[in-house]
């Protein structure tokens, strides 16, 4: 507890909510505290991720305990891995289930591509039940078309990264079924919950109708209107602010 307090002070972490778990101090802590996949730890280290950043120290255990997370940390502070690592682990934990379990929503294609590239690196050599490799996809126009005409099974992918409109299109033409999604991540949530996107975001949330759905939001800024929406759609969330709250 004392260690956690010192660690939090060192990175000016402001964490609020009920029953806040302790942060991790190293990625190896994940092995001792959770039944964490060793191959995932290896992939982190092989890609040069040896020490977690503050938002990763706080965010990863929260998501692994199944909490809804509202996270605010500066640009360049490692938010992508803060949500990818637990999302990959949770996918491994539900390996018996076929089909789409994790969704990452990004306001732009460029950002979606970056998230996808990181997810691919971290999911190397990870297999689920029956030696099926963990499959991550970006919902491109062509993948959307293949899913629609059933050239690709909509159960093939475990995790999908998408922009809002492309995802809504896929849901509308029954190319994708979001009813088994267990965890949805909104990256750059300030944009996704702003006027331009909020209706689309709402449509996506309505299509994710598993009652066990967990929600995470990551952003460099959390304007108060976004925070209000966030608090209203989340269940017993933990709010993590690293550095100073902007917006
Ligand atoms: P943010 O989304 O907060 O702006 P990113 O997730 O894009 O930040 O990460 C910024 C950079 O830091 C990327 O190049 C990423 O690979 C790198 N990075 C993330 N986590 C770590 C880590 N634990 N150790 C080393 N580099 C990291
Ligand atoms: Mg980012």
From TrEMBL:
Transmembrane segments: none annotated. It comes from the Eukaryota. It is found in: Nucleus, Nucleolus. A motif (Q motif) lies at residues 29-57. Coiled coil: none annotated. Residues 60-240 form the Helicase ATP-binding domain. Residues 29-57 form the DEAD-box RNA helicase Q domain. Signal peptide: none annotated. Belongs to the DEAD box helicase family. DDX52/ROK1 subfamily. This is ATP-dependent RNA helicase ROK1. It comes from Zygosaccharomyces bailii (strain CLIB 213 / ATCC 58445 / CBS 680 / BCRC 21525 / NBRC 1098 / NCYC 1416 / NRRL Y-2227). The chain holds residues 94 to 340 of 557 of the full protein.
